[in-house]
Amino acid sequence: LYVEHPLGDGQSVPLDRDQAHYLFGVMRLAVGGQVLLFNGRDGEWLADVEQAGKRAGVLACVQQTKPLQMPPDLWLLFAPIKKARTDFIVEKAAEMGAARIVPVQTEFTNSERIRQDRLQAHAVEAAEQCGGTYVPEVAELQKLDRLLDDWPDGRQLMFCDEAEVGAAKRLASNTPGQPWAILIGPEGGFSDRERARLSALHFAYVVSLGPRILRADTAAVAAMTIWQQALGD
Ligand code: SAM
């Protein structure tokens, strides 16, 4: 179960209404039962149920069962598409171990707004589901050009473009353990201007994901797989 509260030896963890409903209503836990907790910072902890009510409850941490496992320093940058497909991208990025998920607005991006809180909740659920101890941050929607203007020193960019021919061979010339970002475009692809700017960046690697044009959500999963294979640790 994901909680916001700090976790540590003997630490009491109060539960809110939704968490109490889930544990005691849906999962049928009661006082004396145990549950695994994580908060994205302190690893995974086994906790005893100390108080169980309909609208609240208290857990007490017993022992750490996993240390915090940080994912590789990989950001997934993607242009938000339709709601369900955007949800899918966030869920899969969290499952596959992105450290940060950044929705970007490109020239041909369809949506002008995202529900950051909802996307963050999807990232939490995905981390919960795959037994992760880390939850990637879902950033605010940012303009691609602004992001490139303020690009952090030392971070490489895997720019996925269907106009590129050839495989991801050049990625493998890098060493694992460096900060990276993957960029996936919107349904309409990148504009000529964006493509020219991205291709000219010294930290960008233009990568093809094969000869067919993939939907953005498929492309995100394929790109993360290729990156993991070439550079993940
Ligand atoms: N411009 C295209 C069009 O409308 O025909 C489609 C763009 S595609 C649906 C969305 C994004 O997925 C692209 O901007 C790119 O980042 C990525 N993508 C899809 N297929 C790809 C491929 N074969 N190689 C590299 N990137 C790909």
Distance between the termini: 27 Å
- The number of helical runs is 6
Give me the strand/helix succession.
EHEEEEHEHEEHEEHEH
CATH class of the largest domain: Alpha Beta
Which ligands appear in the coordinates? S-adenosylmethionine
Work out the helicity level: 25-40%
Return the structural class.
alpha/beta
Low-confidence stretches: none
Rg over alpha carbons: 20 Å
- Quick one: overall form? elongated
Q: How would you name the CATH homologous superfamily of the largest domain?
A: SPOUT methyltransferase, trefoil knot domain
* CATH topology name of the largest domain: Alpha/beta knot
Number of spatially distinct domains: 2
What is the number of strand segments? Answer: 11
Please state the second-level CATH architecture of the largest domain: 3-Layer(aba) Sandwich
β-strand amount: 15-25%
Mean pLDDT: 93
Main sheet overview:
7 strands, parallel
Can you walk me through this structure?
This protein has 233 residues and is an alpha/beta fold. It folds into two domains: 55 residues, Ribosomal Protein L25, Chain P (Beta Barrel); 158 residues, SPOUT methyltransferase, trefoil knot domain (Alpha/beta knot). The protein is built from six helices and eleven strands. The strands form two sheets. Strands 5, 6, 7, 8, 9, 10 and 11 form a seven-stranded parallel beta sheet that branches. A four-stranded antiparallel beta sheet has the order 1-4-3-2. Helix 2 crosses helix 3 and helix 2 runs parallel beside helix 6. The longest helix has 16 residues. It is elongated and about 60 Å long. The protein starts with 11 loop residues before the first strand and ends with a helix. The relative contact order is 0.15. The site of S-adenosylmethionine has 18 residues, from helix 6. The site of S-adenosylmethionine (SAM) has 18 residues, from helix 6.
